[in-house]
Amino acid sequence: MKAIIRLSAIETKMFFRDRLNVFWTFLFPVAMIWLFGSMFVGGEMSGLAFAEMFVPSWIGVNIVTTSFFTLGTVLAGYRETGVLRRYQSTPLQPWKILAAHTFQGTVIFFISALLLMVFGMLMYDLTLPDYIWSTILGLVISILAFFPFALFVTSLAKNTQAAAAISALFLNLMLFLSGATFPLEFMPTVLQYAAKALPLYYVIQLLRGTWNEAPIMEYGLEVSVLIGIGVVSTILASRFFRWSEK
Questions:
Q1: Euclidean distance between CA atoms 142 and 175, whole angstroms
Q2: CA pseudo-torsion sign 111, 117, 122, 127
Q3: Where is 246: in which H helix or E strand?
Q4: Which range is least confidently modeled, 58-72, 172-186, 190-204?
Q5: In whole angstroms, what is the distance from residue 48 CA to residue 93 CA?
Q6: Bridge partners of residue 45, in order along the sequence
Q7: Can you tell me the distance from the alpha carbon of 75 to that of 69, in angstroms, rounded to the nearest whole number?
Q8: Residues with Cβ within 8 Å of residue 80, at least 6 apart in sequence
Q9: Which of 63, 158, 212, 218 is deepest in the core (most CB within 10 A)?
Q10: How large a percentage of the chain has pLDDT more than 70?
Q11: 179 — alpha (psi -120 to 50), left (phi > 0) or beta?
Q12: Chain centroid to CA 230: how far?
């Protein structure tokens, strides 16, 4: 456990030294909420005010950016530059490395989520979740689904560039087709069905629902899908973990 905590602390320090990581994780979501707020604030969508709909959505999007770019792409870079090969000569087992990066990513994500929530409260009169413990549990379930999913997907990339391209592709697909940025009812019927094939769709539905409408027990489908993704992705991420490009 000490090794996991120590490695997590080192990775967290390295994260905050990278200005691009800090921008995409903390500042970009705030800028997007402000941008969409300039277009939609004052109106209602799906019966929800702007902040009630978009702040939980962008917290969900931040799970995707953290999992793919803070975790998956970083580990792909470590594999390419030989950092993981050096770890291989230590007592660190693959699961400990994955656990350390997952813990580090979780800490960073919750900082970003708190920042988004405070920004929403100050700018758009956002209120605390109606079912706050359900929302927190929903966030934990979403993290446990997306982090191993991203680690598995990026583990298939041959180098950092390929991992970054895969991450960008998944992010853009889910960003615009999951209902995170534009309400699904505005989209053609075929895209509404396609959205349900994207993991982020279930995160968005779970976070918006527990924030505004009902406790997590009412979202059994979303919880079941995310837990299934997490279990399968964890098995695959461990199976395809590689110390080097070879």
A1: 15
A2: negative
A3: none
A4: 172-186
A5: 46
A6: 48
A7: 9
A8: 159, 160, 245
A9: 63
A10: 96
A11: left
A12: 13
